[in-house]
Amino acid sequence: MSGLRALLGLGLLVAGSRLPRVRVQAGACRARPTWWGPQRLISGGRGDVEGMASSAVKYLSQEEAQAVDQELFNEYQFSVDQLMELAGLSCATAIAKAYPPTSLSRSPPTVLVICGPGNNGGDGLVCARHLKLFGYQPTIYYPKRPNKPLFTALVTQCQKMDIPFL
User: Fold this and answer.
1) With contact defined as beta carbons under 8 Å apart, do 113 and 132 qualify?
2) Can you point out the beta strands (E) in the chain?
3) What span, in angstroms and rounded, lies between the C-alpha atoms of 150 and 10?
4) What is the pLDDT of residue 62?
5) What Cα–Cα distance (Å) separates residue 144 from each residue in 28, 59, 129, 161?
6) Same-domain status, 73 and 105
7) Which among 39, 66, 121, 142 could disulfide-bond with 35, CB atoms 3.0 to 4.6 Å apart, if both were Cys?
């Protein structure tokens, strides 16, 4: 259960309008909203370096991320494509929050999504699809395409949405 809580906390970290502070301690995860960046520093809150260091976000190591994935696969019966959808949507949401289409000079704003041959590449394909729905014009660079049904389906979905590939 702690892995799922950590994953949900990380999902909020990417997708939340306020970035939560995620701390993983002895199998527990607690998220509290907090402002990051200039707003936090201006507010008179703990803006000094020591205060920022003590409230740092806990990033997962590769081993911890793999353990969360395994828990989601085994205990909660998530599929690879479900996790790709969640990751791709979270990435697209983070981009849209950091760079809203209305704040950019070009309309629609263009985004290059570079995808590798593994599951992160699948996350990128899903991200590009959601960016298109959010009003961006993504272009995908996907030089090493695996010959697997899931990836072929994701490529087809992007092509059907008129997302160009380089």
Assistant:
1) no
2) 20-25, 28-33, 110-114, 137-141
3) 25
4) 87
5) 39, 28, 19, 21
6) no
7) 39
Query: 3-state class of 77 per DSSP?
Result: coil
For residue 13, give both structure tokens: 């970290």
Pairing of strands 28-33, 20-25: antiparallel
Residue with tokens 């985004």: 111
pLDDT category of residue 111 using cuts at 50, 70 and 90: very high
Cα separation, 27 vs 73, whole angstroms: 18
From 63, 78, 93, the end of a domain falls on 78
Distance CA 86, CA 122 (A): 11
Would you give the DSSP letter of residue 101?
Answer: G
Average per-residue pLDDT in the chain? 76
For residues 63 and 110, membership in a common domain is answered with no
